[in-house]
Design a protein that fits this description.
418 residues; alpha/beta; Aspartate Aminotransferase, domain 2; Aspartate Aminotransferase, domain 1; 2 domains; 5-stranded mixed β-sheet; 17 helices; 41% helix; globular; binds pyridoxal-5'-phosphate
Length: 418
C-alpha cells in the first residue's frame, strides 16, 4: 500500500512513491526472487491493457516518414527497426533476466551455445587467450579447441577448483577466464568471489556459466564476476519446450556482444521469447522443488546398498559442500551417481528400468530425466579421454524435475533392484 502523495506546486516534482516503487519492481530491486520472477522487466500497463505481454510477430517495423528514420539513427531512439536487432518481447525477457541476476543488461541468444560463442567472439581477438576450468560442457570445449584456435585465439584448460593453476595459466595474452558452476556432471562448485578476484588482479574478464544454479540459487555477479551466462533452455525456460541462451553483465561489456549478435543473427523468435517469459514466472517455485527433489534423492541414493558414490553438493560427502553451502540458496536438481560393481551394460539396465524418469539429454525441465553420460555424451571419446573427464562406465546422471519426491525415489528404487 502506498500513501497518497502530498501535492507539490513548484518546479519539477519528484516522482510519486508509487512510480518509484513501480520502477524498483521493474528492475527487481527490493523484492524477493519469486516477486521478481513474476513482475521484473515488465511494464505495468501493456498493449490493450492485457496483463500478459503481446507476441509481436513482425520481422520489420515501419517509420512514418524519412525524418523518423533520421531521428532514430541520430538520436538512438528506443524503438524497433528490424527483427534481427531485437523485438519487443525480447526486450521484456532480457530486462527480466538482467533483474533476476542483478545485472545492468542481458543479451538473449537462440541457444546457450550461441550465447557462449557470441561472448567469446565479441571479446577475444587473434593472439589472445582464454583459460577454462576443465569440467565444462563438452561442446564449449569443442568450440574453443576446434574453432577459436582457427582464428588464432589460444585455449588452455586447468583443473577445476585449482585456483593457483588458473592464476599460473594467465599470461599477458590472456583476455578471459571461464568456468561453469556447478559443473556437469560432477557438480563441482566454484568460489566465485575468489574467481572474480583472480580476474580483477590480472585485468582479465571473468565469465561464469551458471546454467545449473540459476539466479535463484546463486548470483555470481554479486561476487564480482564480470559476466554470467545461462543456457535458458534448461531451468530458466523450465519446460523442455524451448531453446535459448543469455549473457548478463554491465552495459560496457555487453554492447559489443549485442552488436555482434545483430550480425551473427542468433536471435529468438517473438514466440520463443514469450515462452521464456512465461517459463520464468515460475522460476522460484520450480527451483524450490528441484532443490528439494535433488537433496532427497541424493540422500536416498547415498544410503542405497547398490550405489557406490553420489555427487551432490548438498551432501556432506561432496568435496565442494562447504563452498556450496556458503554461497547457494539450494543445490539444484542434478544428481550424479555410480552404480556399485556395475559395467556399462548393467548400468544401462538401471537407466532403462526407470519409468517416471525419462531417458534423454538436457536438464532443468519439469520432467525428470535420466542418462548415462558414457552413452549420451561421451560414446565417441576414447577410454583415456573419458578417464580424463572423469566419465565412468557406471555413472548415471539424473536431472530431477518437479514431480513428487516419493514417486521419484520409488521409481529409482525399483530401477536399482533390477
Ligand atoms: C546445455 C548447456 C549449454 C548449452 O546450451 P544450449 O541451450 O543447449 O545451446 C551450455 N552450458 C551448460 C552448462 C549447459 O548445461
Amino acid at each position: 500500500m502506498t500513501s497518497p502523495e502530498p501535492h507539490r506546486s513548484s518546479g519539477s516534482s519528484p516522482p510519486p512513491p508509487s512510480a518509484a516503487f513501480d520502477a524498483a519492481l521493474r528492475s527487481g530491486r527490493g523484492v524477493g526472487p519469486s516477486t521478481a520472477a513474476v513482475h521484473a522487466g515488465e511494464a505495468r500497463q501493456k498493449l490493450a491493457d492485457a496483463i500478459t505481454d503481446p507476441i509481436v510477430s513482425a520481422s520489420t517495423y515501419t517509420f512514418s516518414d524519412t525524418r523518423a528514420i533520421l531521428d532514430f539513427i541520430e538520436q538512438d531512439l528506443p524503438r524497433e527497426e528490424y527483427g534481427r536487432y531485437g523485438n519487443p518481447g525480447e526486450r521484456v525477457v532480457e530486462a527480466k533476466l538482467a533483474a533476476l541476476d542483478g545485472g545492468e543488461m542481458a543479451v538473449l541468444f537462440s541457444t546457450g551455445m550461441a550465447a557462449l560463442v557470441g561472448v567469446l567472439m565479441a571479446h577475444l581477438s587473434a593472439g589472445e587467450e582464454v583459460v577454462f576450468f576443465d569440467q565444462c560442457y563438452h561442446r564449449s570445449r569443442e568450440f574453443c579447441r576446434r574453432h577459436l584456435t582457427r582464428f588464432g585465439v589460444g585455449f588452455r584448460e586447468v583443473k577445476t577448483g585449482d585456483y593457483d593453476a588458473m592464476e599460473a595459466a594467465i599470461s599477458p595474452r590472456t583476455k578471459m577466464v571461464v568456468s561453469e558452476s556447478p559443473t556437469n556432471p560432477h557438480l563441482s562448485i566454484v568460489d566465485c568471489g575468489r574467481f572474480a578476484d583472480i580476474g580483477r588482479r590480472h585485468g582479465v574478464l571473468t565469465l561464469i556459466d551458471a546454467t545449473l544454479c540459476t539466479p535463484y540459487n546463486h548470483r555470481p555477479l554479486a561476487d564480482g564476476v564480470d559476466l554470467v551466462l545461462h543456457s535458458a533452455t534448461k531451468y530458466l525456460g523450465g519446460h523442455n519446450d524451448l531453446l535459448a541462451g543469455v549473457v548478463i553483465g554491465s552495459r560496457e561489456k555487453l554492447e559489443p556482444v549485442r552488436n555482434l549478435r545483430g550480425i551473427m543473427g542468433g536471435i529468438n523468435s517473438p514466440h520463443n521469447c514469450y515462452l521464456l517469459e512465461r517459463g520464468l514466472k515460475t522460476l522460484a517455485l520450480r527451483m524450490e522443488r528441484h532443490n528439494a527433489n535433488g537433496l532427497a534423492v541424493a540422500r536416498f541414493l547415498e544410503a542405497h546398498p547398490r550405489v557406490e558414490r553420489v555427487y551432490y553438493p548438498g551432501l556432506e560427502s561432496h568435496p565442494y559442500h562447504t563452498v556450496a553451502t556458503e554461497s547457494m540458496r539450494g543445490y539444484g536438481g542434478l544428481v550424479t551417481f555410480l552404480v556399485k560393481d556395475a559395467d556399462w551394460q548393467q548400468t544401462s539396465r538401471v537407466v532403462d528400468a526407470a519409468r517416471i524418469l525419462r531417458i534423454g539429454p538436457s536438464l532443468g525441465g519439469v520432467e525428470s530425466l535420466i542418462e548415462q553420460p558414457l552413452v549420451m555424451s561421451y560414446w565417441n571419446y576414447s577410454p583415456a579421454e573419458r578417464q580424463t573427464f572423469g566419465i565412468g562406465d557406471n555413472m548415471i546422471r539424473l536431472a530431477l524435475g518437479i514431480e513428487d519426491t516419493a514417486d521419484l525415489i520409488a521409481d529409482l528404487g525399483r530401477a536399482l533392484e533390477r
